[in-house]
Amino acid sequence: MSVITTIPCPVRKIGQSADHHFFGYYNKSIWDREGRRMLALRVPRMAWDLAAEDVAEVGYFDLSDGETFRTVDTTTAWNWQMGTQLQWLEGLPGRKLIFNRRSDDATGTYPGLQARILDIDDGTAIDLPDPVYVVAPDSSYAICVDYMRFTATHPTIGYVLAGPAPELDLAPTDDGIRRMELPGGESRLLLSLADLKAFQPVASMEGAIHWVTHLEINPAGDRVLFLHRWTRRIEDETCWLHRLLVVNSDGTGLKLLECSDHPIPHLDNAHDPNALDTFDYEKSEYQISHPTWRDDRHIMVWGPHAGEIHYHLYDIETGEAEAVGAPVLTENGHMTYSPDQAWMISDTYPDKHTNIRKLFLYHLATGQRIDVADLQTDPTLGKENRCDLHPRWHPDGGSVCIDSVHEGERQLYVVDLGEALTR
């Protein structure tokens, strides 16, 4: 039987700098292979409305040297939710990381944006033609998307424009999901947004703008999951529609796993999206969100299936889905599996009355949920500059790293899960 227990676990801030630090998204390794260095961005204030010229320092905490933050570069291509897509390239020789940046010399698909591979030992850099979203586990290729399209469709994860917004086609044939080889930078289109619109279409796609998000590569590196979203009213997230799909890493074998297409009664009526609380959309009964690979064949996601919304586990071979932890996993969160796959870590969005986010473990074999931390957020933070916890596992499975503002500053914290895991 599924139960909820509470076992408070130690939450410790990393570093002692007066500046603010964060990483961004969940489901990426923040520690290097030695467990000695922890990636982060450094900024001068906890939050502000970003401008295109705002600089974040790219670097890492040296955990073996007093948790000193070491700056290795800077970037102006970042946001509060996903950072700059900073990640280790553990499959390449040496000690390398990758991140996105703006450059007038960018030669790729998206003007002014590129990725940079930086060797932190010798300082050498390789500039790539396109910005990255996620890198394959063996560092052999990256999946790339258009961050300027995000700026129009989903500003929370876009990069602020330096000039006027470009005119965007609704579902172009030359933009969508790209694959870029590493470290060489050869890039090609795997799936266009026109391809996605034409694949098992529904009527609500007509006249809508389309985009892709939440892309993740499986452990074997041969499949990519993603969300296809579309809407006829960008500014109102309750009008967004969602599909969960998977495709082979060469662009073949596209498969639909879930579609949350549904009537939107207020689409043609006067409706004020600002009347919604910041996190109401994240708690929508139609939201498909935060998919993650359990293994090469199974995907966990928050979303609706068979008329009910839960954490659902999909078998990509059969297309079947099963609800997981329905009695205790009752709302959207950022979930990932422990290295031994015995546990999931996840979080909640803030309670609108207490402003508390919960960080919790879920034991897959027994269905037990263990709440390990209650962390307060600042209710004045808006949608774009909020601070989600985004828990990320340590490679040894004994702790997680989160971003949090519960002490009045934006910082990285490590939560030691030892007591909860052993009890």
UniProtKB/TrEMBL annotation:
Q: Which InterPro entries match?
A: WD40/YVTN_repeat-like_dom_sf
User: Which species is the source of this protein?
Assistant: Seohaeicola zhoushanensis
By what name is this protein known?
Oligogalacturonate lyase domain-containing protein
